[in-house]
Amino acid sequence: MLRIDAVAMPLAVARIALILAHRQFDVRTMDVAAPVDGLRRITIEVATADEIRVRQLLAFLNRSPDVVRVVRGR
Q1: How many CA within 13 A on the CB side of residue 1?
Q2: What CA–CA distance (Å, rounded) separates 56 from 74?
Q3: pLDDT in tens, 3-48
Q4: Reduced to 3 states, what is the DSSP secondary structure of residue 69?
Q5: What is the pTM of this model?
Q6: What strands lie across the sheet with 67-72, from one edge to the other?
Q7: N or C, which end of the chain has less CB nearby within 10 Å?
Q8: Band (49; pLDDT cuts 50, 70, 90)
């Protein structure tokens, strides 16, 4: 599970979803919270056990200008 703090701007969630789709990740759940203090919390669960792919996804998300922080959960 990934917890992403993204800027609360139009299309930010769409661009994050595009990163997941482009990298062909199967999203099990995606929860988008209402903006608080200019940030939007996005919680994503992806269906993969491949540690290398998850690390690559973290790197791609951290490079996005829409993403402020990515925290990996259990």
Answers
A1: 9
A2: 17
A3: 999 999 989 999 999 999 999 999 999 999 999 999 999 999 998 8
A4: strand
A5: 0.87
A6: 27-32, 39-46, 2-7, 67-72
A7: C
A8: confident
User: Using CA atoms, how far apart are residues 67 and 74, in angstroms rounded to an integer?
Assistant: 20
- Rounded to whole angstroms, the Cα distance separating 37 from 60 reads 24
3-state SS record for 2-68 = EEEEEECCCCHHHHHHHHHHHCCCCEEEEEECCCECCEEEEEEEECCCCHHHHHHHHHHHHHCCCEE
